[in-house]
Amino acid sequence: MVESRTDDGFVLRLPEPLPVPTPTVHQGHILVGAGLWYGAIAPRRGDVVWATQPGDINPTSAACEGNLCAFNTYSCTVVVVEADSGHLRTSKWLGPTVLSAPAIADGTVYASFTSARHRISDTGDIANGGLVALDLETGGLRWRHWLDRDVVGAPVVGGDGVHVSTWGGTLMSFGRDTGELRGAQTHFALGRPTWHRDRLHLARLQREAQTWRVDLLGLPAPTPVGEGPPAPYWHLASIPAVRGLAQRRRLYPGYDRDAVFPPAAADWPAPSDASRAEIGHPYGQDHIYGGVSPVHAGTTTAVVLGDQLVAVRDGRVTWTRDLSDTYERAAIAPYFTHERWDPRRAYGMRALHGYPPATLSAAPERVVATTLDGRALILDATSGQLQQTIELGHPVVNEAVLDDGWLYVGTLDGRLVAVNTADPAIDGWSTYGGNAHRDGHPRI
Asked: Is 261 in a helix, a strand, or coil?
């Protein structure tokens, strides 16, 4: 399976030439899969330690706790395996399809699914997705809550809550232990939220007059209505949306956004009337790509807004980097044009329409942008100064894993690329979302 190997890294070709999600580094293994194959790879060398067939297609990025790792499959299970051996512990069917990765916290797996217009018996509302909390050891159901649609990227554990943004454009928060709904608000988030300094952070699409913009927001953690005064939210950064947005397609014209959900909590900012229009999610549903989410590197928060990489500290923009050349280098259109990539078709750069220019990982002192045209840009988190540019040789739409100076990334054409950066600051980003909570923080 090793396609090439040098002292500075390796390229591993997985058995099936399908897109590879963000790998997970845990207990001395790289856990990764694609198609009907899932396995553990030895870091730095690329040898297969163990391999298994999960029984369903397209495994997601795994979340791990102790010796147990959980990942979802596309249709449509949450699978728990032992990290050291690959031995199957539990496999639980969730719904018709699953478009997101799971999160783990304190022995509980949080996972979402689509539900094919499920009618809620006690209210008559129609739900097109659900969120469950499962026991990591046994797979037993702890609680379930219905959603408007499946979750973008993954559920996020922050504070005593679980927070999700859905493909329907809704941001929601639930109690971790009980599953009670604490807040719901339309935001058209471009990816999963993250958790930083007791606030949610998210990138969103917002309409203003006749134009569109992309914002970075900081939101208070919602509390049940009546339990304390509302907290103000931070509007951290905003830039115009990139060209091509007007040609987006309406993905869900029949969706009733008011179904299932109570009125928004008072401490969540209300969207403008224009942004309530039925535009659907700007990327379309995708089980490979997890959207645009902020990352938190020390005191710096970084996010891709449109075709710009923007860094914020203490509520102010501290540096930016133009990524528009990514589209030119890859000879593709900007992500708001909505041309979808079908992995079953012959691979080609023209097929990559539908993605932003880069996705981000973070270490305490570094921000790493992996780009559509196959580069890894390593930047100083404080100044934005470019430290290294690494040519990966393959297109990437997922976050890289950063571990002990090494960078590991899955590619769109079925490969795992490993590079020794020789930078000791490249460490702490072990999986999609940074850690098993998916909260956007590196953990050292």
From this structure: coil
Instruction: Read off the pLDDT band of 298 (50, 70, 90).
Output: very high
Segment 343-360, tens digit of pLDDT: 333 223 333 345 678 999
Which of 163, 90, 91, 169 is closest to 131 using CA atoms? 163
How many angstroms separate the CA atoms of 404 and 33, rounded? 22
- pLDDT band (50, 70, 90) for residue 92: very high
Whole-number Å distance between alpha carbons of 219 and 193: 10
The backbone torsions φ and ψ at residue 150, rounded to the nearest 5 degrees and listed phi first, read: -65, 165
Backbone φ and ψ for 133, nearest 5 degrees, come out as: -115, 125
254 pLDDT tier (thresholds 50, 70, 90): very low
Contact 422, 9 (CB under 8 A): no
Return the ∠ at Cα 423 (arms to 421 and 426), rounded to 5°.
Answer: 85
Burial of 209 (0-12, 13-18, 19+ CB in 10 A): exposed
Task: Please state the separation of Cα 283 from the chain's center in Å.
Answer: 13
Report whether 12 contacts 20 (CB < 8 A): no
| 39 pLDDT more than 90 | yes
| 388: enclosing H helix or E strand | strand 386-391
- C-alpha distances (whole Å) from 100 to each of 43, 154, 264, 369 are 25, 5, 24, 21
Asked which of 29-33, 202-206, 231-235, 295-299 is least confident by mean pLDDT, the reply is: 231-235
Contact 103, 97 (CB under 8 A): no
For the chain, domain boundaries: 2-254+264-420
Q: 140-145: long-range contacts at Cβ-Cβ below 8 A with a sequence spacing of 24 or more? A: 142/108, 142/179, 143/178, 143/179, 144/179, 145/174, 145/179, 145/181
| 372 confidence band (pLDDT: 50, 70, 90) | confident
Domain made up of 2-254+264-420: CATH architecture: 7 Propeller (2.130)
